[in-house]
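Input record (one chain):
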Amino acid sequence: MENLWQDLRYGLRGLGRQPGFTLVAIIALALGTGANTAIFSVVNAILLRPLNYGTPQQLVMVWGTNSRSNLMKDGLSVPNLLDYREQSSTLEQIAAYSQADFNLSHVGEPVHVQGAFVTANYFTTLAVQARYGRTFSDGEDQSRASRVVIISDALWQRQFAGNRNLLDQPIQLNGASFTVVGILPQGFQPVNPGDELFVPLALDGGDIQRTPPVGPPEIMKMRNLRFIYAFGRLKPTASIAQARSELSAIATRNETQYPNDNANIGVNVVGMQEEIVGDIGPALKLLLLAVGAVLLIACVNVANLLLARATSRQKEIAIRTALGASRGRIVGQLLTESILLGLAGGLFGLVLAFAGLKLLLSISPPNIPRLTEINIDLRVLGFTLLVSLLTGLIFGLVPALQASKPNLNETLKEGARGSSVGGNRQRLRRALVVIEMVLTTMLLIITGLMIKSFSSLQQINPGFKPSNLLTMWVDLPPAMYSEDKQIIGFFNQAFMRMQALPGVESVGGVTSLPLTSNFIVRFRFTVDGRPPASANERLTSNFRGIHYNYFKTMGINLRSGRTFSEADSEQSPPVAIINESFKQRFWPDEEAVGKRITLPGIGNVSREIVGVVSDVKHASLDADAGWELYVPYQQKPLNVMNLVVRTAGEPTSLTSSVRQAILDVDPSQAIYDVKTMDRVVSDSLSQPRLYSVLLGIFAVVALVLAGVGIYGVMNHTVNQRIHEIGIRLALGAQRGDILKMIVGQGMGMALLGVVLGLVAALLLSFTAAHFIKGLLFETVGVRDLTTFAVAPVLLAFIAFLSIYIPARRATKVDPMVALRYE
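The corresponding structure, as predicted from the sequence alone:
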């Protein structure tokens, strides 16, 4: 301990005597450690930290599957859910929910709240207790149960100011009265992110006035209506694989017993944590590898600084050795100094991580799973401490071993001319720079691939014109709008009032807006006069009810036929419009207009195709358009509608006017998700944009560190060769020759690292092709020629600048001064 304290005091004094060296080293390490801490905090919250439920490892998601439509994450029908409940021996409980939207009438304008209809065992399956009040009791998901509701802590604080007297009091939801029986704990994360309000789901249908999104009792008995989503809790002795096998066997029996409704319908069971993480896992792992590379580059830089510092301490170490200090004692002293640097870099890196994490959360899209759980906790602090200690050992060990074996005679000679020891250190420093260049090259190439992928996504034509479009979502409460004529009347008045607003060019509406996940509906259809390809084939298409002016407002091109008009009403003959993909699948070489299709789910009547429109990117910009079927909303009224308003000027300036137009039709109706279509398109790219920005930041940091590293080596090399340069100049060498010599030697070292980095990146593109390809847009290959060419050239240019500056200084050496240089 006495030696340790002595080493610490001596190390602190030594670092304090060289503030420039100390500051540069700490900054380099702080950048690397801070970036690693920030990204690890994200990985920790999303991938490593258990879900905030009781025994979360037992929780699983139960998905319906449809092999005919290649769907692996479909909903379940109520009868199938009940079969799984009754016949499963591997699951203790199975709970279900159906997403819903509510208009909360409290004070002033109605407020939209996202919520869910849930089975009574929703919270007991999650092992979550209410903060105040209670959760649902057995039987409250039956039709005769009273109207009760449980709300989140955030909603309670936001809308009711945390009033404890709210318990057992009624609130107005969708025009009906519900009694608040429970308030959930702070930080509770629902299975469906964003849900803040929970109402019992009557599994036997119940009263349409009580559970309006569910519908009449007969709907709950339909096996082909899959609208609920389920999760379960495994028994302690059961595994996910056993549950999957058991439920699949039940699904197979149902397929045999109910072939008309359950043909090709299966089930899949996955861990809930795996499900919540989704497809963000690979991207997070890539970011973690990227910041790991940045930290290694920072360590290489500091190791080079320590090697340079060791040169100036040769005599000191030689004297200590001559006085009897052992090699282990000297290595211990030098490692103590490097660990002090590592800890200081970690401390300042933690400050950078706090700031960086705050910035990261501010630019992160809301669809990042477990976003609100991301913070710097004890595990993250432990990670930072471990990284700081390891980096101190990593970058300090080799310089300490090199410096701790001085040759006393050689050291006395080395001051002016250099020696084998000095040469060894120079070769080591050059080798470290080569490693630095390899890592930077690989990081630049990966970053280039991600940025090119994001750029390619931005260039895709979505199939509509997003500029000057304002969008909003309206969800009419079925309890108040239970009849088709009521729905049609509301929207007709709303469209008319909005069209009359100053600055409005046109108004339209659609049941599901492109590039959003709101209310996606699919219907079966048959092509009239054409038998199915096989006995089990059931064709399905995305269905969208629209206002007749929708295509004009959105800027969607008509390819053939006509669009809808006011004449296409509930009394007129049934009609439909299809997209180009639909047309190419069924009528590739003939005109589709005039053909007829039948939708069993919409009256089972034949509809004439009156038009074909261009494909629109509905699911995402990088997904195929699929088959799209448009129907006048009057012929299939639905309670939900995305309103779209094309304006002459800035769209958001009309937000209040449009909101008032809706309130003029129905003062109890809320509108929500008000945003421009440009924002909708931008939000759809939020995740790839975030990854590209972060990788870009890491790449810039790596470039700076690489440039500083090679500059430090060349600057030290020039200083060591001042005497030699003076002799060359005195013997007649031209200053241009000196410049070429130094630049040539430096670029040889840099280009070797770039070439090795290219080779390593190519090997990575073969060995991890599937992993990398999964993160890229399909038009960008894992061995994209442009990226593999531009990244090395950029790095070589940075290296040239870093080499040229000290080389240029060398040409200005005065030979007389240089010959006296010691």
